[in-house]
Amino acid sequence: MKLGIILLSFVITQFGFSQTGRKVEAFNDGWQFKKGPFPENELIFMQDWDKKWTEVTIPHTWNAKDMQVDYGNFYEGDAYYKKTFLVEESLKDQRLFLKFEGVGQVADFYINGVFVGNHKGGYSAFSFEITKAVNFGKENEFLLKVNNEARKDVIPVNHNLFGVYGGIHRSVWLISTNQVNIDVTDYASNGVYISQELIDNKKVNVSVNVKLSSKLKDIQQINLECKIYNQEGKLVAQKSNPVSVRPQGVHEFTTSFILNKPHLWQGRKDPYLYKVVTTLKDGNNILDEIIQPLGVRKVEVLADKGVFLNGEKYPMYGVCRHQDWWGIGNALEQEHHDTDLDMIMEMGVTTVRLAHYQQSDYFYSKCDSLGLLVWAEVPFVNRVTGEEGANAKLQLKELIRQNYNHPSIYVWGLHNEVYKPHDYTAQLTKEMHDLAKGEDPGRYTVAVNGYGHMEHPVNLNADIQGMNRYYGWYEGKIGDLETWAKGLKADYPEYKIMLTEYGAGGNPNHQTEFIENTWEYWKPFYPETYQTKTHEIQWGIIKNNPNILSSYLWNMFDFCVPKWNNGGIEARNHKGLVTFDRTIKKDAFYWYKANWSQEPILYITERRMVDREKQQTNIKVYSNLGEPRVFLNGIELERPKMGTTEVHYIFENVNLVQGENSVKAVVVKEGKAFEDIIKWNFRSEKTKDFKMKESTKVHAGF
To answer: DSSP labels for 267-314?
Structure first.
């Protein structure tokens, strides 16, 4: 079988720079797939083994359809992937590894019927050395048993907040190296860890820690070479040190540099990246080489002041992102990540919470080059069983080691909305915090609570306390966010607090003018107009309460929740600003684009509320170009009222005519005209036919 040599994603996206000394080859083609359920009788199971295999290409999931369309009815259980592959005789003097970027969610791996290893966790990468397991010069059978059933000892422990898609949902790589190499099996990391300490923005101390492994009999005397190149490809620093590598265990070596007057990584404004090339040499012979990014930056989170990047206050315009797509699940190609990032960047986002699990290395790499600050977290969500502690810590260690060198990442997320038993959860959170600090002292930790009070017993065991507040949706009224924010400022002025989720559901097919300040979320009707109002009010509140150090709206995209049935579509969370299929940008998308983006925006809202229910109504316009002139049926309206922010213009109590109405907004700025036009219909006056009762319960999560 022919395999094309592929560069690591960072190299592809940043430097076009080939590794030498090792081959990293795509191992995605030629797989066969069989889904259960399988008979429990072993004899029947074996008789059926050779039947009904399907050819698939990785990435793949078996839940792309059933999990997304039928409430509570999807397959979770065992499935198998197998592949026959000729391991060339010429590789006999090499070391071979197989790396899986993501398998949902428990995997057992066999070669030629012999067990090689196991991995528990659906979103982190894992790798196995297979040198001794394969037969060189012969066909070998690779078999992966995969299971995505919820279980108490593997996070997430249920499918309640999002579905755990079954399958090999990210790429597989065959890696061949020399007998002496940069370690491949250190929790599937790249074996190189770059630390930095930025001093006064004028000097940075850079340390490159490298883990080396050897399978040769004797001690190897080799050179460890580290070079730093700037973004233009110029060599700016280099060191070469002789090292002795023993055949037993893994050995660590550290090289340190001082860079004077470094070009800083300044987020979206200037996401400048160096590259660090780490090379093992035997004389002039390159044994192994790894290329990694270096973004020189210092992130500080200061209570009651904000987030500072290299000493400058950084605007934290935040969204959360679930990775799955309609009809595809989480078996995404790079083009899907690029599409998501295009919309995130268009909206003016500066920081992304990648919820609630480790996401593709490609996505983190793109965030490096785009200048997005990233919150990365593990899937310890929704429920506590008492049996998940070891796996939660394992997945956290994998997350940190695999993503250590991404300059975009500024904080490690420990959990989201987990509670009883409180003492157990608090202690586990503290242990995870300690683990993260031991692995990576230079980054913050954060844990998230769904309750709104700081004194909750699982709180304050991480550097930052996150809180999810859904006022006007799961509890209270939309504007209650203001009271909550001011209360925290008064009572906890020295605490580092972030609003880590907020928002409301919005189905673009559901529209009404009859909206108030609360909604009954369990109803099947989720009007987009209510979602828009929620964000208009709540972003205005957030903007004026700087003690909320960062906020992350929930969610950038609609996503699958297989255990839910609300909002008129089964198995769907509708809180996204973009629909699940990425075809409709809801009004709230343009609200944030007008508030956050530097791109000119003039947008009339409620364009899908075509059939108007009131003859006397309001026209709302978002404009970051200044005050718009608005014409209704060719007649200019009086000047607007200012809304909740300086881009929010409301033309109140305008009267529609019977039949079709044309609404036109115009702004002229610096000699250039901008306009937006929509059409509305009015037939007859409608009356409100539903009631909404405010929930007095405190939302804690699901």
So the answer is: GGG-B--EEEEEEEEETTEEEEEEEEEE----EEEETTTEEEETTEE-
**648-655 sheet: strands from edge to edge:** 602-604, 616-623, 648-655, 641-642
Catalytic residue among 377, 398, 417, 536: 417
φ/ψ (deg, to 5) at 500:
-95, -15
Is the bond preceding residue 441 a cis peptide, omega within 30 degrees? Answer: no
Q: Check whether 59 has a pLDDT greater than 90.
A: yes
Looking at the DSSP bridge assignments, the partners of residue 250 are 213
Q: In this model, does residue 214 exceed pLDDT 80?
A: yes
Q: If we measure between CA atoms, which residue out of 628, 634, 543, 557 comes closest to residue 588?
A: 557
Interatomic CA distance for residues 677 and 602, integer angstroms: 10
Q: Per 3-state DSSP, what percentage of the chain is helix, strand, and coil (rounded to 5)? A: 15, 40, 45
Q: What is the per-residue pLDDT for 195? A: 98
Q: Please report where in the chains the tokens 């306390």 appear, as a residue.
A: 465
Q: Are 273 and 265 in contact (CB under 8 A)?
A: yes
Q: What DSSP element (H or E) covers 229?
A: strand 220-229
- Confirm whether 417 is a catalytic residue: yes
Tell me the one-letter amino acid at 107: A
Which pair of structure tokens corresponds to residue 248? 């037993």
Predicted pLDDT at 231: 97
Question: Which phi-psi region, left, alpha or beta, contains residue 57 (left: φ > 0; alpha: ψ -120 to 50)?
Answer: beta
In contact, 385 and 349? CB cutoff 8 Å = no
Nearest-angstrom CA–CA distance, 351 and 301 = 14
Q: In angstroms, rounded to a whole number, what is the distance separating the alpha carbons of residues 145 and 345?
A: 38
Q: Is the dihedral of CA 512, 518, 524, 527 positive or negative?
A: positive
Distance between CA atoms of 485 and 489, rounded to whole angstroms? 6
Residue corresponding to tokens 């369309």: 69
Do the Cβ atoms of 644 and 591 come closer than 8 Å?
no
- Is residue 646 within 8 Å of residue 601, measured between CB atoms? no
In the chain, the amino acid numbered 139 is: E
Q: Please give the backbone phi and psi of residue 435, each rounded to the nearest 5 degrees, phi first.
A: -60, -45
Torsional class of 167: left (φ above 0), alpha (ψ -120 to 50), beta (otherwise): left
What is the Cα–Cα distance from 282 to 288, expressed in whole angstroms? Answer: 10
What is the model's pLDDT at position 702? 62
Q: For 352-378, how does the pLDDT look when each residue is reduced to its tens digit (9 = 90+)?
A: 999 999 999 999 999 999 999 999 999
The reply to whether omega before 555 is within 30° of 0 (cis) is yes
Name 678's Cβ contacts closer than 8 Å, sequence gap at least 6: 604, 607, 662, 663
Q: What is the dihedral of CA 564, 569, 575, 580, to 10 degrees?
A: 110
Beta pairing, strands 106-111 & 192-199: unpaired
Helix 587-596 to helix 528-543 angle (10° resolution) is 20
State the Cα–Cα distance between residues 226 and 240, nearest whole angstrom.
6
Q: Omega into 421 within 30° of 0, i.e. cis?
A: yes
Q: What average pLDDT does range 180-203 have in this prediction?
A: 96
- Per the CB < 8 A criterion, the answer to whether 642 and 672 are in contact is no
- Among 504, 500, 499, 501, smallest CA distance to 517 is for 504
CA–CA distance, 126 with 118 (Å, rounded to integer): 9
Label residue 684 exposed, middle or buried (CB < 10 Å: 0-12, 13-18, 19+): exposed
Distance set, CA 543 to CA 269, 540, 648, 663 (Å): 21, 5, 14, 30
Q: Which among 598, 650, 599, 592 is positioned nearest to 621, based on CA atoms?
A: 650
